[in-house]
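re: ur msg from earlier - yeah i can do the dinuclear copper ion complex, just paste it... oh wait u already did. ok heres what im feeding in:
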Amino acid sequence: MKKNLHFFLLTLGFLLALSGCCSHSDPAAEHIKVVMKKYTIEPAVIHVKAGQVTELEVSTADVQHGFDVPGLRIKEPVRPGEPAIITLKTPPKGEYSVVCGIICGPHHDDMGAKLIVE
Ligand code: CUA
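and the outut:
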């Protein structure tokens, strides 16, 4: 039983290392996927470490949206099939609101999330 667990952890570690090798432009960066779709942003709370370079890979599941974090002066269009890579270098600690920056339908104003740098 213990041996199996060990093997599982080794395999998991290997897979994580493998997936990490090719998808990151900055190998030291933390990579977080964010998906926008009418009318949500997932995850609704994005946790980022203050001392860590973080890459947000923001994609849309339907139409064009905008990933805006006014408090960090981030404003990125997110087009279908073209995920936006947003690099957060050393953002100050705090809670920032994320809003949709491109009119995407009647509930555009309801699209929101929170970015927490801690
Ligand atoms: Cu999504 Cu506006």
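cool cool. The CA atoms of residues 11 and 21 lie 15 Å apart. ping me if u need the other ligands too
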